[in-house]
Amino acid sequence: MIIRLPRNEKLFFIFVLILGSFLLFASLSIFIWPVKVLKKQDITIIVDAGHGGKDPGSSYNGFQEKDINLEVAFYLQEILQDEGLKVVMTRTEDIMFNNNRQDDLKRRIDIANSSDAALLVSIHVNKFPSPKPFGGEVYYFTGSEQGKQLAQKIQENLLKLQKNSYRSIKEGNFYLLKKSKIPGVIVEIGFISNPKDRERLKSESSKREIARAVAQGIKDYLVLDVPVTVQDQQVSVYPEYSKIDLMGGLLPLFYICQEGSGDLKRHDIKVDYLKMLQDTPAASFVEKKIELALLVYREGDLAGIAPLPENANYDFSLRDGDLHLFFELDAKYFFSSSLMELLALQALKKTFLSLPGVNRLIIYLDERPVNTISGHLFID
Ligand SMILES: [Zn+2]
Question: What is the pLDDT of residue 270?
Answer without folding.
Answer: 60
